[in-house]
Amino acid sequence: MTDFLKQAKELFPYTQTLRRDFHMHPELGFREIRTGGIVAKELEALGLEVTKGVGKTGVVGFLEGAKPGPTLLLRFDMDALPINEDTGAEYTSTNAGVMHACGHDGHTSIGLTVAKILNAHKNELAGNIKFCFQPSEEGNNGEEVGGAEMMMRDGVLENPKVDMTLSLHLWNEKPLGWVHVAKGPVMAGAEQFKIKLIGKGGHGAIPNLTVDPLVAAAQIVSAAQSIVSRNVGPLETAVVSFTIINGGTAFNVIPQEATLEGTIRTFDPTVRLTVIKRFEEIVRGVGEAMGCKVEMQVKQLTPALINAEQVTEKVQETARRILPAANHDNNPYLTMGAEDMAYMQEKVNGCYFFIGSNNSEKHLDYGHHHPKFDFDEQAMINGVALMASAAADILK
Ligand SMILES: [Zn+2]
Ligand SMILES: [Zn+2]
């Protein structure tokens, strides 16, 4: 009785109604008041033990199975992005400048549907389920840490202690029907860097009397390209991207300072340390060679997201059984995007899987974080069926 595809299809109107409502009322990270309120109300209606305010706006529903067993945490993120929606959908955002452009409206709706299904089958569960509705996955949004870490600070992995986690992402880079469950690293770890080059300003026509931080900035951007091409092995992966360069106010003035910002992405911890070490050496070395004083910080945003072997194998088995018509992909699929579920999976064995959600015939194929992003809602059926069935299989 753990094949929940039929139930997922029957409950689709519920999932879709929730999704469209969340989509029309998106909320930024740590401000998911309305969203969290609906989540809490729905979980309470099922009779679950609900805790609000876990990690500020996070909500946790606790379901005790009929028989003793491990505790499984299912995580769904709830936050939207500061983007002006341009989809023209009938359920378009009513909150100007805020949009569900990553699919977290879908994740929250999938989570509530899974809770409904598993609650109806709690007599068959040997163990407990924590339904974890997480705020602020997309960044810290002004707080010290992001949503996953904030919930962990508030003890989401304790009382009872969580033994395993499952989580998912609707994935618009791949078509509806694609289901990806893979062992090992699946999402990159991310660092954010900020560099300040302090030179000596002066007249643009008399550069010999200045120390030009813009020339130094240009050299640094070029020199840093050698890290990935010359310090990272050909079969390893890393990204070094400069995304902000600021400096200067007038065409005839060499500025005093320039700032550079950007991000580093890696999967392997050793590669990560090599890249950061070379990056610091090159930035400092080149900046100082150009005569500038260099101030820099490299801050870790998230570790790499790594799927544990055993629980992932179980999810793979379940996926093949309950979604026989799907295009199953268990190959390493490394995405350079970052995901803060990595913090929970650093502490607890977990499996994070992807559900293909684009449909080019319906023009639902813009990438995540695009103002025209929208997904094929049918993908939520696959998400619900796999999440509910995998949880039930694990707690069999
Ligand atoms: Zn996102
Ligand atoms: Zn996302």
Which short descriptors sum up this protein?
single chain, 27% strand, Alpha-Beta Plaits, 2 domains, alpha/beta, 8-stranded mixed sheet, 4-stranded antiparallel sheet, Aminopeptidase, 10 helices, binds zinc ion, 396 residues
Describe the structure.
This protein is 33% helix and 27% strand. With 396 residues, it is α/β, with parallel strands linked by helices. It has 2 domains: 5-186 and 304-394, Aminopeptidase; 189-301, Alpha-Beta Plaits (2-Layer Sandwich), CATH 3.30.70. It has an 8-stranded mixed β-sheet with strand order 1-2-4-3-5-16-6-15, with helices on both faces. Strands 10-12-8-13 form a 4-stranded antiparallel β-sheet, with helices on one face. Helix 8 (309-322) crosses helix 10 (379-394). The structure holds zinc ion (2 copies). Residues 102, 104, 137, 169 line the site of one zinc ion (ZN).
- The name of the CATH topology of the largest domain is Aminopeptidase
| Span of the ends, CA to CA | 10 Å
Uncertain runs: none
How big a fraction of the residues is strand? Answer: 25-35%
CATH architecture of the largest domain: 3-Layer(aba) Sandwich
Helix and strand succession? HHHEEEHEHEEEEEHEEEHEEHEHEH
- How many structural units, i.e. domains? 2
Rough shape?
elongated
Kindly name the structural category: alpha/beta
Q: Which ions, cofactors or small ligands are bound in this entry?
A: zinc ion
Average pLDDT, to the nearest integer? Answer: 96
The description of the largest β-sheet is: 8 strands, mixed
Task: Give the fraction of residues assigned to helices.
Answer: 25-40%
What's the name of the CATH homologous superfamily of the largest domain?
A: Zn peptidases
